[in-house]
Amino acid sequence: MYFDSFADFLRMGNHGLYVWVAYGSTLLVLLSAFFITRSMSRSVETNIRWAILSRQAEQASGAQTKQEGGNEY
Amino acid sequence: MKLNQKLKEYWHKLGSPRWFYQITTNWVTFFGASALVLLVTGLVWALAFAPADYQQGNSFRIMYVHVPAAMVAQSLYIGMGVAGFIGLVWRMKLTDVAIGACLPLGMVLTALALFTGGVWGKPTWGSWWEWDGRTVSTLVLLFLYIGIYALREAIPDQNLRARASALVSLVGTVNIPIIKYSVEWWNTLHQSASFSLTEKPAMPVEMWLPLLIMVLGFYCFAGHQVLSRMRLEVLTRESSSRWVAELMQGRGMLANPAKASSTDHGKG
Amino acid sequence: MVGALLLREWKILLRARASIVNPLAFLLLSTLLFAIAAPQLVAEASQQASGILWVLVLFTQLLSLDAMFRRDYDSGTLEQSMIMADVPFVAVLIRIFVQWLGTGLVIVIATPVIGPLLGLSWAAVPGTMLALLLGTPALSLLGSIGAGITVGFSRGGIILALLVLPLFLPVLIFGTDIVNAAGAGLNYTAQAYWLALITLAALIVSPFAALAGLKISVEMQ
Questions:
Q1: Is residue B2 part of a domain?
Q2: Domain housing B185
Q3: A23 vs B47: CB contact, 8 Å cut-off?
Q4: Range of the domain at C130
Q5: Residues 3-42 in C contacting B (C-alpha not used; CB under 8 Å)
Q6: Nearest CB to A22: which of B119, B262, B267?
């Protein structure tokens, strides 16, 4: 450990504000990117799921009406 | 010639979004896990264990985030240029997916590099901003990114947008070394008191090892992000195809609409 | 065919005299603005002339680029000429050349007037004219790439600037340096060679890229 105490670590020899702002913004960027991509992933999966399910439902009801239509004769 | 054939096979397969999705499933996890390990290790090492610079003091630690951000930002743009070239020549749709995936992260990292550079500069050399080779090049990179971003926003048609982005990123990438050279040359004429932010020669191991870890960590993170976004885009574009339906089924997402909840897919 | 194309372009240029006058007028206007707003900056001894002159040249070029392909695009002749031309590449090159005649060459000719208005010393004028002569073709060439891609946009102006200004940077850097060197009486052969090299490289690359951009724009119609 380069620093003698935790207080020293935070102060960074007078440059504390700058170092922590820099590292903080970096962490902010990285974490935001990660979480935004993750939330995008969830919404994409939800959208696709519903699209597929509704398509399947359509096809099912389409097949049903075809059957019923056939019985008309 | 077996290798040649193998390579041709891979090249051909790259055109298939489905193949791409399947093969990157493990890569995403690998990059994600590596990024986590490398970044946590690197951050702790850089902040707490690396020695401070003799002249700069502890503000030197900012280098450990500034340099990787700048490197990855530039690599992402070059990646876009390469993808653009491949897309224009071989008309592979995946290349546009790649460009779209690299763009947001690259832009943000460039801005981060500029910001952290300024924050580094203030305590170390006394000013937030100096017009020198590095700052100008990075600023130009930001404008290159913004240009493509604006371009993509302006073209609604997917195919045309792809071609335009490919063209512009290719031209921009070719321009990067030209700009670097001419700006460096300009810099030698307008040399200010500040020295360049490149690593000084012969950095001791205790200093460049954490830097290497941070750089690798950033690259792995970028890889994870870009691949994740590409996979999402692929799913969206191919959402009406059978393999996507089968995939969703395989994940148990089509079983019961009422039951299906937002499952946690980790870093996928 | 080249002759016919050149003749046609020349006629269009003469008829649309605005395309020659406008860039010149803009340059003079902005010079006036500087003279009023920052007279110390354009004073004889201030030595800022090189930078200001080149930046104004760049802006003038941007304005002119916006309209470069627009009339043909709007009238549909662009699409036609791309389909019908034997070698579309040459057609684009000719259009770029004529655009340069109307902007770059005009600027070069106007330098003995504009330069001193911006505080350029008389000694520096020949060098400046050479720099502009070598550099403005590169601006037209590189600019045509952006113009080709953005001709279809309704508000393409800012995107054009974003795309094209990074391409202009090397020309700006070497161009200003030649002017500075000329003003200080120093040798500027090396920079001149570099500038010529940039223009040559632009000559090789730009028509293809501009054509590719035009094809995209035409399909957007």
A1: no
A2: 28-190+207-231
A3: yes
A4: 2-220
A5: none
A6: B119
CB neighbours (10 Å) of residue A60? 9
* Residue to substitute from A1, A9, A12, A38, interface B, most B β-carbons within 10 A: A12
CA distance C75 to chain B (A): 21
Residue A20 distance to chain B (closest CA, Å): 9
pLDDT digits (tens, 9 = 90+) for C5-46: 778 777 777 777 777 778 889 999 999 998 899 888 888 777
Has residue B202 been placed in a domain? no
Chains B and C: 3 or more CB pairs within 8 Å of each other: yes
Domain count of the fold of chain C: 1
Chain B: give the shortest CA distance to residue A67, in Å.
Answer: 25
DSSP state of B53: B
pLDDT of residue B191: 64
Task: Decide if C163 and B151 are in contact by the 8 Å CB cutoff.
Answer: yes
pLDDT at position C1 is 67
Residue C16, CB-side half-sphere exposure with 13 Å CA sphere: 17
**Phi, psi dihedral angles at B53 (to 5 degrees):** -75, 145
The pLDDT tens digits for B96-136 are: 999 999 999 999 999 999 999 999 999 888 888 988 888 99
Rounded CA-CA distance C95/C214 in Å is 12
**Rounded to 5 degrees, what angle do the CA atoms C202, C205, C210 make?**
100
pTM for this model (two decimals): 0.88
pLDDT of residue B12: 78
Please give the ipTM for the structure prediction: 0.88
Query: The domain that contains B101 carries what CATH number?
Result: 1.20.120
What average pLDDT does range B162-167 have in this prediction? 96
Domain count across chain B:
1
Chains contacting B with at least 3 CB pairs below 8 Å?
A, C
| Tokens encoding C184 | 């200080």
